[in-house]
Amino acid sequence: MVLLSGNDLSVLDVEHVAIGRATVELDPAALDRVNTAHQRVQDWGARGYPMYGVNTGFGETVHMAVPPRFAETLQVNLLRGHAAGAGGFFAEDVTRAIMLARLNCFLKGYSGVSPATVVLLTDLLNQGIHPLIPQQGSLGASGDLAPLSHLALVLCGAGEAIVDGVRTDGASALAGRGLAPVRLGYKEGLALVNGTSAMTGVAAMSLMRGYRLLDIAISLSAVLVQVLGGSTRAFDERGHELKGHHGQIAVAAVLRSLLQGSKRVTRHVDLMAAMADRRGDAQDVVDTGVMIQNAYTLRCIPQILGPVLDTFDFCRDVVERELNSCNDNPLIFQTAEESFHGGNFHGQYIAMAADYLAVALAEIGVLAERQVDRILSPHLNGDLPDFLVRGDSGLGCGLMGAQYLATSIASENLDIAVPASIKSIPSNGGNQDVVSMGLNAARRCARLCDNVENILAVLGSACFQAVSIVGPDDFSASCADWYATLADRTEPFEDQEPVHLFVERVKSVLLDNYEARYSAAWARNRAWTESSEVAGGSHALRTLATEE
């Protein structure tokens, strides 16, 4: 259960409700705030107090005065007129994240919605009624009008929803759970749609996926270092402390933990001794054949994935502030007979954070694709077989074809990661003349997560194949456990089937293994989130290091 107050919702809570299907409860004090604002705006509407969306038209028609007898019609028409979405529907877990984000905004107590509307939205979450929300159609200012209109219609007994896996109309969805639709009072339709909850919910889900993908990327990097006999000097704590970035320091620390006890890594002192021995007393330039430091795909893992971690943590701060914000317009002040006509619905914060998130996700893929090349290439992978063929090289292809997949996706990601937040196109008769495209930015991150999962699946397949060739005995305990988990679910690839089936099995194990650890660690992570920040990076990475 997650208790909602409007003030302390975390991205971990979002995922717990969205994926874990945790129920939510409402803080009574928050409901009191909701009621106070609702009564105030209803009084203003009855008295003819001029207020946008209460007794005026919407957008560029704000100059049109609407009498009280059209109060409900005004709100319902807004929903019908803006339920203009298209494209595929959001998955149920993403829809739940969107619903939760909107609900938490209402609990701030500044939107003017009724307690009945808030309770019904809570019932939808807790009883598994998931509005069908098309993914396309939001400009990200004035909020996510189109997707939230599709959500709001279900509260009114219209629109469509998924209940127990079955698509049905909104009225039947409510009736099937013994619920009655709400009748909208002054401003309620506007409050339901005029906010950033769709883009924020989508961004929160992609962010949490990003943390998981980063953890997997670091784990696979540790396997790669051992497979290729890499030097551990590059992960020396002292050097990373001198750089000073928390993400880099944290990634290096996790790598040291994952490599502990390995007999396959190379100590720097041994490299120096080998070079000195081969140089001997020569007075001329000598090719010793000793690489005293590794290529960037091994040596610079903390410097590449550390910025990814710091970017994720920055994005988490932005997303969590937005989750706990008043992103409506107008807002009803609690302590004065006034309203705030502003632009808190504008999604630029989430749009830009999602752009940063997209770049960070793409970078995970960039590194992983190059690591795939290093472990497969006969020119780079040391004594390993060409393309990790088990058998006769040339007769079998090994993972040659799987590399094409990783490289193709990594290239595609570079196009997808182009910023969306600067692609403003004016709309609404010039009223919405600078928009954020925040939902476009957030949706693009979900696609990047899918792509990076597949690149990491190829890398994981290559690492598993390589360990199967050299044997797991001299690897670190964490790597040996990782290999054993995979070996229980799949055999190495020996051209016995289409290679994509092998990669898909490895991908399933990588994701399932993380999900099991994540579920067990949720409460501990939640406690960390509520405590003071601890230097050294992400809660997810610290959990990984502890468990490994």
TrEMBL record:
2,3-didehydroalanine (Ser) PTM positions: 142
InterPro entries (alphabetical): Aromatic_Lyase, Fumarase/histidase_N, L-Aspartase-like, Phe/His_NH3-lyase_AS, Tyr_aminomutase
Coiled-coil segments on the chain, per record: none
One Gene Ontology term of the molecular function aspect: ammonia-lyase activity
Keyword field: Lyase
Organism of derivation: Actinocrispum wychmicini
Active-site annotation: 52 (proton donor/acceptor)
Numbered residues of crosslink 5-imidazolinone (Ala-Gly): 141-143
Record Pfam families: Lyase_aromatic
Lineage, highest ranks first: Bacteria, Bacillati, Actinomycetota, Actinomycetes, Pseudonocardiales
The name this protein goes by in its record: Histidine ammonia-lyase/tyrosine ammonia-lyase
